[in-house]
Amino acid sequence: MVLNRLTFCWFALVTILLSDVSYSSIGRVRDVFKANMVLKNWRRKAEEQRVRLFDRLPQNIESKFTTPQVIAHRGYPSETHHVTTDDGYILEIHRIPPKGTAKKVVFLQHGVMQSSGTWLVNPSSRSLAILLAEQSYDVWMGNFRGNKYSRKHTTLDPHSRDYWKFSWDQIGNYDIPSVINYILMKTGQSKLSYIGHSLGCGVFFIAMIKHPQLNAKIELMIALSPLSSFANFNAIFRVLTPYTQPIESFLRFLGTRVLFDSEIAGDRLFDIACEQTYSQARFCRDVFILVCGPNRKNLDPALIPLMNANFMTGTSVAVIAQFAQNYNAGEIFQAYDYGTEGNLQNYGSTKPFEYDLRKITAPIYVFSGAVDKIVTAKDVDWLLTKLTNLKGSTRFQEYNHLDFIWGTDVKEKLYDKVLELLSS
């Protein structure tokens, strides 16, 4: 179409210049000028169309799929299980059953505001869940209470305020123990390996401290950018941390129950702002980089739609507030701060409960990033001094917070090492 229009304009211009029709020189100049203007206009439109054509971001149908649908689309069997916690929350977890006899059971737990689909954002060649399945591991993927897969309760309505009264503490105290015990019951195994990212590690630590008997059920815990102390958090949002209490009070006054739930409006916003062209995708990638740390080249802009589909899947106000509380508290790993009166009711003390990481006896291997702005190297160093059964630690000098799950070089740099640890 563009080529035909350009051809027509050139033909019109040549016709005017070569015509035998008699008209004044002024008329000839005027018509040549008009023809040139038309030609320039069509050239501009042709260039715009070319840019749109070549800048268009390919549509990835998996961005509209659920986790089980993504697994099936990639040619693997999947199962969906529901686990009810002791406090009534119904969690949906996803499984890729092993090919034949399972080597071992491996449980993957995502970080804050994400879902089980986090482990399937990357192509199969560098997706941890698929790499494990390919080697006949029995792969299970969890979902935090309140995210888009785990938003049910035996008695509470998810639209009620009471449903959203949970923090890291309830996830660690109820969700993680319930899921671990359920998986071991279903598989008939006595132990499993746990791989967590960010808050997926923090709630594991809480579970092991609150339920000491669980430590014996962990063959190996692999911690990817593990959350504990948050004292050196260095992302742009730290400027809001001094105002945690008034912000939280204001949100409660407004009746805000769930935060960062893309299904409310975010999906459409992401689609318009991030997922139409490569230019938009690169911009949104750079926003991730601004928050999580440098290493721009390690996130593929073409995967932005899949990243967005598994980001901002919903959580409570208290979960987000607890990050700021731990930042303000300094080098400590503490429970949710209810305020003086609330702390007395919940902890019997005016201060929040402090989790003693030295009580964890499960074997742990830690991977961290030197340029991670969320879980900083300094905070990981503090954690390493507290763990009593640390099997080793590796720090990647160029890794930010997202490289551990979505990096383009993550298989060669990290997952090959993870597979080696699991097989030893």
Keywords:
single chain; 424 residues; alpha/beta; nine-stranded mixed β-sheet; 11 strands; globular
TL;DR of this structure?
This protein is α/β, with parallel strands linked by helices. It is built from 15 helices and eleven strands.
Task: Report on this structure.
The chain is α/β, with parallel strands linked by helices. 44% of the residues lie in helices and 14% in strands. The protein has 15 helices and eleven strands. The strands form two sheets. Strands 1, 2, 3, 4, 5, 6, 7, 10 and 11 form a nine-stranded mixed sheet that branches. Strand 10, helix 13 (377-384) and strand 11 form a beta-alpha-beta unit. Helix 5 (168-187) crosses helix 6 and helix 7 runs antiparallel to helix 11 (317-329). The protein is globular and about 85 Å long.
How is the main sheet built?
A: 9 strands, mixed
DSSP, total strands? 11
The H/E string reads HHHEEEHEEHEHEHEHHHEHHEHEHH
How much of the sequence lies in strands comes to: 5-15%
User: Helix segment count?
Assistant: 15
Our Rg estimate from Cα atoms comes to 27 Å
Terminal-residue CA separation: 62 Å
The helix/strand class is alpha/beta
Mean of the pLDDT scores? 86
Label the overall shape.
Answer: globular
Helix content: 40-55%
